[in-house]
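Hey team,

Filing this mostly as a record. A colleague (T.K.) asked me to run one chain through the structure pipeline before their review meeting, and I want the input and output archived in the tracker in case anyone asks later how it was produced. No errors, nothing strange. Just documentation.

Input sequence:
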Amino acid sequence: MQRVLIDTDPGMDDALALILALRSPELSVEAIACATGNLTADRSAANALKVLDLIGAPTIPVAQGPLTPLVRPYPKDPFSHGDDGLGNTGLPISARSLDPRSAPQLIVDTVRRFPDEVTIVELAPMTNLAIALLAAPDIVKKIVRVVAIAGAFGFDEHSGFYATGDNPVSEWNVYVDPDAARIVIRSGVRLMAIGVDVWGRAEANFRPDHRAALEASSDPAAAFAVAMSQFVESRHYMTYSVQIDAMAVAAVIDPTLFETERLRVDIETVSPLTLGQTVVDRRRHHPWTALPEIEAARSAAYGRYLDRLVATLCGTPERSPAARSTVGLGTGTRA
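Output structure:
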């Protein structure tokens, strides 16, 4: 069983990612840090507690991070998650309490409590993680890895078609706090990123059989997923919008779901035209070899991923030996 800390900003897709993580026997969710991204951190923390209630999850520390990015104003999101941040599904306010620690402190404490055991599932702008790494640089080597929904790496045209930051080339999580993303990417922590190139493809949408299974299920998580899918479809978005972040959780459960490539990458933090762009140096000659290197997803086994997600939402998660036995990024990685 892998220990994970989830840094999140629920948000519809974050909510389904939390459910996948909390219901997967391969994972032990040790803590949930809440960031400003889809919503401000106070609202995302409240939504995380609502999701815990929805599925009757046990008590898990949930902490709130800063209300703004490191050095910039909180930008306006061109996409809306609804008045409640959860597709106007109206989940009741939770009676659970937040952990008194700040989200960055919760990250530090959790990693120090379980050195060399915690994977951080990064579903939000990286403000909390950057503050944690700056405050406690010793934890860099104690984190197993970070698996993030972040960036657009130019593997195909989807990087441009579905860019989610408020400019032509950026992805929302990086765009909100590019300075934090740059700190994390330059910290030396082991990082895998799943970008627009992968989650923005038509294959990432629920198929008709998935929708039928969700609609037929009596599980409240399935009904929740259906309601959010209807919300995004009513606004002319596709259903991948409600489960982007679940891909990062799936990558921890079963790394064989993703083919990755090792890239030299840095973050643009100056130009308003390209703010938050994940700049990749692919040059055959004279590359900037000092740039940080990460693993970036270039493709996914969409059918297996969606089958697992839908089964989990319906209360019947798959428990394949392959998923239980794979623990690292190794399989499917390109040099």
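Quick notes for T.K.: Residues 2-334 form a domain with the Inosine-uridine Nucleoside N-ribohydrolase; Chain A fold (CATH 3.90.245.10). The chain has one domain: 2-334.
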